[in-house]
Each structure stands twice: as structure tokens, then as C-alpha cells.
Here is the input.
Amino acid sequence: MSNRLPPLSTLQAFAAAARLRSFSHAGEELHLGQAAISRQMRNLAESLNTELFERERHGVRLTEHGRRLYATVQPFLDELEGVASGIRGERESKSTFVIYADPSTTDSLLMPTLPEVKARWPELDVQILCSDSSVTEYRHPVSLGLQWNRWDNDEDFEIVTIFEDVVFPVCAENRLTRTDVADGGLNLDGTTLLHLEQPGRTWVDWREFCRHNAVNYPTDCEEVMFTNYPALIDAAVQGYGVALAWERSITRRLDDGSLRRLGCASLPWPNGVCAYLPRRNRHDRRAREVVSWLLERFGGAK
Here is the structure.
């Protein structure tokens, strides 16, 4: 079919030249030079093997074949413009709502609840930006930030804790030994400890965890450092070592048995998932509604 159609890129220029009866005026309307319009009309005429315009002293006029073509092209362009305007209007009527979230929050909180968010706020065109970096470092406008744990704050955001959490050691099934879990205790001797460290974000480290639980920090352990929490958890699943995990972020891993809790020691953590509300936000009311709904849905319950 494409071989039987005239060059579609020429039709707008043809309709303008036919309506204005001038190649130069058509060029002005379309921000093209007269030579470009003439070249397009020549290509269109050659593809149809006929003349479409006749030259006049002060412009051009359509031939019979030109009039037949114009009678079809102009209504087609008018209808196409109407459809395009309608589509643009529909898109513009839906306000883009940008949520900036880290991978763990996206996976464990946002994706399971996204259908409900869209159903409750159908006027919002929800877009998710997923990044390990802090929302406080992102220099483009966002409607709402949702991130596991709390980053260093700045004056641009109001921070609301969606829920608190608890931290405890996890590892793959094949890492468990009788000594590890005897009487609910924790023995880290000879263990590979998987550490997480990100500048600007306060993570629980192994030494802090051991102090809190009166557990001896091992002197003969291997230590591996990660800067990405999902990578840390994946390493634990693969059996490379023992990691400190936030309970709510690994519920599915615990349920399917790919991770097991090591001992009964734990550390309460006041900042599980935190919402970052930009202080200059055109979606402030909607963002606060979403945060209130998340607090109802997740706050205080596991």
C-alpha cells in the first residue's frame, strides 16, 4: 500500500499551497522556504504522474487533478488535527505525578499498591523514578519521594515516616548451622558479613547491631561491602554471607524460604520507609493525600 500512496510528508504543504494559492505564502505558514515548497510539490506531482498546479501571474491555482486531491487531503488533515488535539487534551487533563523511590521501596511498597493508587487518583498520571541516590540530590521537580531509611535532610523537604521497622540478620538456608541458632543466640565467628554503606544515609552497621544485642563482634570474619541494598540481599540469597535486613523489605524472601532469620537478635529502627514532601510542590495536596493513605495502609501494622 505504501507504494501506491503519495508522499505523505508533502500533503500539509500541498494543502497550504492550495488554500493560499501561493508557494511563498505556504512556506511562510509552515516556516519553510519557497524552494522547499516547490520541491515538495514537484515530488508529489511526479508520484501521481500529473500536474497539480498551474502558474499564474501572482501565484498558483489548482488543476482539475489538484482540486480532486485537495478535496480529499484537506478534510483528512482537519480530522487528523482534531484527533491530535483531543489526544493532547486528554494527556494534559491528567496531571503527571512523579514519585522518586529507591529500588527496595519500589519493589516492596510501590508496585504492589500502584493499582490502588491509580484507582483512587485516576486524574494522576503516575510516573516512578527509581534510583539508589537520595531524592534530596535530584535536581528536577518531583511530586513525592519514598525511600527506605532516612537520608540527610535539607530545607527543601518535609519528611514523614510511613512506618517503623526492625533490623535482623538473614542468610540463605545453607548458611544456617546449629551453633548459629542455638538457644536463639547469634554466633558470627567465621562468618562472611555483608555490609551496606551509602554516603549521606544512616544504615545500621554490624558493629552497632552487635553492641545493641551484646553480641561479640567476630575477629576472624570476612567482610564484604555493598553500596546497594538489593544487591546486598541478593548476595545473601545466593549464600555469600549474612546480611542485616529490614524486615518489611524481605517479607517475600522469608515467606518463600530463600532467606532465613539468623538467631533472634534484632534492632528496632524508627525510619523504615520515609516520605519526602517537597516544600515547593504543585501537587502538594495530592502528595499529602497519598502519604495519608500510605500511613493508613502501612503505619503501625506489619
Remarks:
- The radius of gyration is 32 Å.
- The mean pLDDT is 85.
- Residues 137 and 154 are 10 Å apart (CA to CA).
